[in-house]
Amino acid sequence: xxxRVIALKKKIKLYALSTCGWCKKTxxxxxxxxxxYEYEYxxxxxxxxxxxxxxxxxxxxxxxxxxxxxxDDSQVIIGYxxxxxxxxxxx
Length: 91
Fold this sequence. Notes:
Number of helices: 3
Strand order of the largest sheet: 2-1-3-4
CATH superfamily: Glutaredoxin
Distance between the termini: 19 Å
Largest sheet: 4 strands, mixed
Structural class: alpha+beta
CATH architecture: 3-Layer(aba) Sandwich
Helix content: 25-40%
Strand content: 15-25%
Radius of gyration: 13 Å
C-alpha cells in the first residue's frame, strides 16, 4: 500500500516524555494515521530550552502531565484519548 498523507490544515504539537507509554501510543496513533505533527520530548531537553517548552506546556496544561497535544493553538487534548483525537483531527 502506498503511503498516504492526510492533508489536514491543522497545526499539531505533541509534548511528550521519551519514557512515557501513553506518549508513545499517541505518537504511534498519529503516525499510523499519517498525521503530520511536531513533537518535543520534554525530558530530553535541558536548561533554557526545557524552561521555554515547560512554559508552553503550562499554558495549555497547568498540571504538566503528558502527553499534551495542542491543535491549531486553540484546542488541547491531555492524555491518550483516541476518540477525542479522531474527532479533533477529523479522522
